[in-house]
Structure formats: C-alpha cells, structure tokens
Amino acid sequence: MNILIGDDHLLFREGLCRLLTQLDTDANFTEAGTFDEVMELAQGDQDFDLILMDLQMPGWPGFAGIQQICELQAGTPVVIVSASESQSDVRAALDAGASGYIPKSSSVKIMLSALNLVFSGGIYVPPAAIQGEGPGVGNGTSSSSSNAGSSNNGNSALPSLTQRQRDVLRCLREGKSNKQIAYELGLSEGTVKIHVTAVMRSLGVRNRTQAVIASADLLP
C-alpha cells in the first residue's frame, strides 16, 4: 500500500506512519510538508492508495485544493486529518471530494476505524458534524432520544434538523435519489449520504421510507 501524508508537522507525520503500519505492515509512506509538495507528488507517476492531508499547510489554496488532489489521483481516497473541528470545515472538505474528515483529537481506535471505513468504500465524518451544523441547532443534544418518537404528536418543528437537512428531507419526500439531491442542492453525493443519515437519526427511523412517513406531519 502506498500512502501519501501531507502535514507540515514532522512529528505528526511520523506518528501517522507508525499508526498506519497497524493497517498494513508493508505500507510505503511518502511525506510532504507543504501543499505544493503534495501537488507535485500527486502529479507524478506514482499512484497512491490513500492520501492523508492536513488543512492550512504552507501553500494551502483553500478547499479547492482538495478537489485538485482528488482529480489528480482519481479513485484514491483523500482523507483530511486536521486540528480543526469546525463543522463548516468538515462540510467544505466533503463537498470538495474528501472521503473522510478525522479530527487530530481522535483516539487511535477511532482513527483506525475511520480509515477502515474509507477503505471499504464508506465516508467517515465526525459524529458531531452529523448531529448538528451550527450554533443553536439541536442545542447540542442528542437527536436519537426524546425527539425520536415526536413525529406523531403534531409538533410543527423538525427535531434537531438544520435547514440543509430539511432540504434533503424534502427531496426524499419527492422520491429523489442521492445523485439527484446532490445535483439539486449543489452537494457531493457523500455529503448527501451524511445528511440522510442525520435525518434518519433525528426522526428515529431506519430507512428512507420511514423517514418520509415520520415527517408527514412535520413538513408543509
């Protein structure tokens, strides 16, 4: 397995290398300390199986840089490993094509589980980014407890849903696929999947059909 690690902190890169040997003892690591170095390596002849990249590296051009790397290494999962836990950063990274976003504060167990999910074709996002997307949304409470059974009590407010999640729910009620929702809302399909998961958790349901039924009294 060939892994590219882009981070401007040498000690963190070395720590990631040691951690990732738990996934593949024969992994080959290529390190870069600036975004320009990541770009140069991505443009080279070597194909990578995984790219781990920090935000705000020297030369960082913004989230469009993630899209550039994804295009240069098509089919290779790009995972952001960042000290930032801002939900706006998580959303922007996923919208740009990242296959996951792992906060540097995550435990070793969580990081390894996240990478295994990515390798299996999934998209990893921090739980906090699924539970809410801004101040005042859900008041920081869990969306799977008291709100789960409130869909039939005539409550006119959607439990713990952001405006974007409400938009996704409306699209679900119109029978649209994730691809259609992504096109209509200007999101990546991966981000749509995250929002669908958040909607189902908030409504206390297990599939899209149940979400539509549960929201019958909640959306106009």
Task: Describe what you observe in this structure.
The chain is an alpha/beta fold and 220 residues long. 44% of the residues lie in helices and 10% in strands. The chain contains ten helices and five strands. It has helices at residues 10-20, 35-43, 64-72, 87-95, 108-119, 127-131, 163-173, 178-185, 189-203, 208-214, and strands at 2-6, 28-32, 50-53, 78-82, 100-103. Strands 2-1-3-4-5 form a five-stranded parallel sheet, sandwiched between helices. Strand 4 (78-82), helix 4 and strand 5 form a beta-alpha-beta unit. Helix 7 crosses helix 9 (189-203), helix 8 packs across helix 9 (189-203) and helix 9 packs across helix 10. The N and C termini lie far apart (51 Å).
Q: What is the CATH architecture term of the largest domain?
A: 3-Layer(aba) Sandwich
Helicity range of the residues?
40-55%
Q: How many domains, as an integer?
A: 2
Distance between the termini: 51 Å
CATH topology-level fold name of the largest domain: Rossmann fold
Low-confidence stretches: 132-157
> Care to count the β-strands?
5
CATH domain class name of the largest domain: Alpha Beta
- What is the CATH superfamily classification of the largest domain? Response regulator
Structural class call reads alpha/beta
Strand order of the largest sheet: 2-1-3-4-5
The number of helices is 10
Strand content: 5-15%
Could you give the order of the helices and strands?
EHEHEHEHEHHHHHH
Rough outline: elongated
Overall pLDDT confidence:
80
Radius of gyration: 19 Å
Largest sheet: 5 strands, parallel
